[in-house]
Design a protein that fits this description.
single chain, 305 residues, alpha/beta, ornithine cyclodeaminase, domain 1, Rossmann fold, 8-stranded parallel β-sheet, 11 helices, 24% strand, binds NADPH dihydro-nicotinamide-adenine-dinucleotide phosphate
């Protein structure tokens, strides 16, 4: 018989338990372990849903003493229903016994683990004196990325662009940023974050200042693009997983841009950081190890005596 009933952790409980300063080292370890081959993680499985652009994703991973899977739905039409477009739950198991430990909300974890990965990459790869931040997008990830990245660099100016001007204005008002066109946001920015559902590139390489650092987060899968081939081909490209990059990133596959390193390889010191002054794209896709590391952290806090 299992030791006890699995824990159920709602979205609000996960939000209480997930502390960003504790999440950062957990995510850093997951990235290092992943690149060192200590994580078992197949590519995510994707099942199309009937609504336009909607899909169900299955993201399993074994990390340290737990294994589990994030089950995620992406339903773009939810934006018009007042619902989050990304919803998820995570199920955790004991890796020794296979007992179910917990079932928890995965939406908050998705929002924060993605921003935590970008924050770590920004800390490692952007200029320490980066002064201008451009955020393209105004949704869930835009908000967590603003909070996470401003922990890493002291930006003097934050620029926001979003497809729907009203959304851009609302978000910019919340964070004290200015709203501009995409080109105005990108030109001269030291750090650029793309967190949109765009299907075709919105960022042109010719606008990007040499030496800028780009977190390209929104385009996941072989159909979506946010940045163009010019940027991909001129930048040094860093990813979470070479395998995911080759199978799940239109930006990498279509541009043919070589991958310089996995973030975990840089964090472990196995690969040198790109030379100072290089333009860098961190092509974020999200990997199951990040979700399971975050869920393990939340579970441990929930069960701490
Ligand atoms: P939201 O639904 O909260 O926000 C979506 C954003 O995309 C809005 O700002 C919206 O702009 C914009 N947008 C939608 N369609 C288009 C379009 N055709 N062209 C340009 N902009 C568009 O989503 P999230 O913030 O949760 O996610 C943002 C992106 O990040 C998604 O693509 C998601 O799949 C991806 N993602 C990536 C992860 C990773 O690990 N790399 C993890 C989680 C998400 P507006 O409202 O102004 O119209």
């Amino acid at each position: 018989m299992p030791n006890s009933d699995p824990l159920f952790l709602s979205e609000s409980r996960v939000e209480q338990l997930l502390v960003f300063d504790e999440l950062l080292p957990a995510i850093e370890k997951a990235l290092i372990d992943f690149s060192a081959g200590r994580v078992i993680q197949p590519l995510r499985g994707i099942v199309p849903m009937p609504q336009p652009g909607a899909f169900f994703g299955l993201m399993p991973a074994l990390f340290e003493d737990v294994f589990g899977a994030k089950l995620v739905t992406v339903v773009p039409a939810n934006a018009g229903r007042g619902l989050p477009t990304h919803l998820a739950s995570i199920q955790l198991f004991d890796s020794q016994t296979g007992e179910t430990l917990a079932v928890m909300d995965g939406r908050i974890i998705t929002a924060w683990r993605t921003a935590a990965v970008s924050a770590i990459a920004t800390r490692e790869l952007s200029r320490p004196n980066a002064a201008t931040l451009a955020i393209l997008g105004s949704g869930v990830q835009a908000r967590t990325h603003f909070l996470a990245l401003t922990r890493m660099r002291s930006f003097q100016e934050v620029r926001v662009w979003s497809r729907t001007p009203e959304h851009a204005r609302k978000f910019a008002g919340e964070i004290g940023a200015t709203t501009v066109t995409v080109e105005e946001a990108v030109r001269g920015a030291d750090v650029i974050v793309t967190v949109t559902n765009a299907a075709a590139p919105i960022v042109r390489g010719e606008w990007v200042k040499p030496g800028a650092y780009v977190n390209a987060v929104g385009a996941v899968g072989l159909k979506a693009r946010e940045v163009d081939d010019v940027l991909m081909r001129t930048a040094t490209v860093i990813v979470e997983s070479r395998e995911s990059a080759a199978c799940e990133s239109a930006e990498i596959v279509q541009s043919g841009a070589p991958v310089y390193a996995e973030l975990g390889e840089l964090l472990a010191g196995k690969v040198n950081k790109p030379e100072a002054g290089k333009t860098i794209v961190f092509k974020s896709l999200g990997i199951g190890a990040e979700d399971i590391a975050a869920a393990r952290l939340v579970y441990r806090k929930a069960t701490a005596k």
